[in-house]
Design brief:
The chain is an alpha+beta fold. It contains 3 helices and 12 strands. Among the domains are: 2-48; 136-297, Rod shape-determining protein MreC, domain 2 (Thrombin, subunit H, Beta Barrel). A 6-stranded antiparallel β-barrel has the order 1-2-5-4-3-12. Strands 6-7-8-11-10-9 form a 6-stranded antiparallel beta barrel. Helix 1 (2-17) runs antiparallel to helix 2 (21-48). It is rod-shaped, with a radius of gyration of 56 Å. It starts with a helix and ends in a 10-residue tail after the last strand. 21% of the residues are buried.
């Protein structure tokens, strides 16, 4: 059979060499059939063994394992992302609550600090009130003169509290008693006080150490120093910066020995026969809150209490 096939093949080839067209076509068909049979035989041999199936299974297992691993990683990533977003939202909520709580604590701390400072100021005022030898009425600064005619300040006590015109107003500040001014107008519940820096107020005064007398007047501005005038020029060498100026009690308006301020400068104009002394008030009017109105001196042993 094999011999016949080759004979046929050779005869076909010889015939083709002779130049016949039909014989060439037959030869090509036989060749294609031969090649196809060889390929089929090889495939049958491969499928008949177990190695191919084993490797095919391994390849499939590897492929599906890779797909399964990718799906697992993807699902894990999505889960972690969702959890992270949720945790971030929870953290933001907790952060906002902590900020609000911190603000409340800061408000409480400020309130406690303010109350503490208020207690200190009130204790100072109480201690000062116990040392006064005058009938006294405590009051609080509640405003300023809206017309600013007298640079006046408003206090929250009036005629109902026993305030009368020309009552002297003093205060206790930084451990020192000092003069604030005098009452110039009275209402039922409030009064106007002319402060010592008003240029319409003139105070008989003296230097606490040297006892030289003069008149203290203001410039209408709480930021400007007072001016003590009519001090003899011969007192120039006896006056020092920082000396205390007090009320002299002359004229009967202001009680004696109430602190007014300290010497801040000394001037000796050539055309004047007296000195001009710059006096810095002891009261810082920008921080003034509480005052006392005093009326008359009281004997120390009367035991008069506050109104």
């Amino acid at each position: 059979m094999r011999q016949g096939f080759f004979n046929e093949f050779n005869s076909g080839a010889l015939f083709q060499k002779g130049g016949g067209k039909s014989h060439g076509t037959v030869l090509n068909s036989s060749f294609y059939v031969f090649v196809s049979l060889v390929i089929i035989s090889i495939l049958l041999l491969m499928f008949s063994g177990g190695n191919f199936i084993f490797h095919f299974k391994n390849a499939g297992l590897s492929l599906f394992s890779g797909v399964r691993g990718s799906l697992y990683e993807m699902s894990s990533f999505v889960s972690r992302t969702v959890l992270s977003v949720k945790e971030l939202a929870d953290l933001r909520k907790e952060y906002a609550e902590l900020i609000k709580r911190l603000e409340r604590y800061e408000e409480l701390e400020r309130s406690n600090a303010e109350i503490y400072q208020e207690n200190i100021r009130l204790r100072e005022q109480l201690g000062f009130a116990q040392t006064l030898r005058y009938k006294r009425i405590p009051a609080q600064i509640s405003g300023r003169d809206p017309n600013n005619l007298f640079s006046a300040v408003v206090i929250n006590k009036g005629s109902f509290a026993g305030v009368t015109r020309d009552m002297i107003v003093v205060a206790w500040q930084d451990g020192t008693q000092a003069l604030v001014g005098k009452v110039i107008q009275i209402g039922a519940l409030e009064s106007l006080v002319m402060p010592i820096f008003d240029n319409n107020l003139h105070i008989s005064s003296r230097l606490s150490v040297t006892r030289y007398e003069g008149i203290v007047e203001g410039h209408g501005n709480q930021e400007s120093p007072l001016l003590m005038r009519f001090v003899p020029k011969r007192a120039r060498d006896e006056i020092n910066i920082g000396d205390i100026v007090v009320s002299s009690g002359m004229g009967g308006v202001f009680p004696a020995e109430i602190n007014i301020g300290r010497v801040n400068g000394i001037f000796s104009p050539e055309y004047e026969t007296t000195l001009e002394i710059e006096v810095m008030p002891m009261i810082d009017f920008s921080r003034l809150e509480y005052v006392y109105l005093i009326e008359r001196e009281i004997p120390a042993d009367t035991g008069l209490t506050d109104d």
